[in-house]
Amino acid sequence: MIRPAGVHDVPEIRAMVRELAAYERAEEQARATDEQLRRALFGDPPAAHALIAEDDATGETVGFALWFPRFSTWTGTRGMHLEDLYVRPHARAAGHGRALLASLAARCRRDGYERFEWWVLDWNEPAIGFYKSLGAELLDEWTVCRLSGGPLADLAAQAPSDAP
Question: Which residues are designated catalytic?
Answer without folding.
Answer: 131
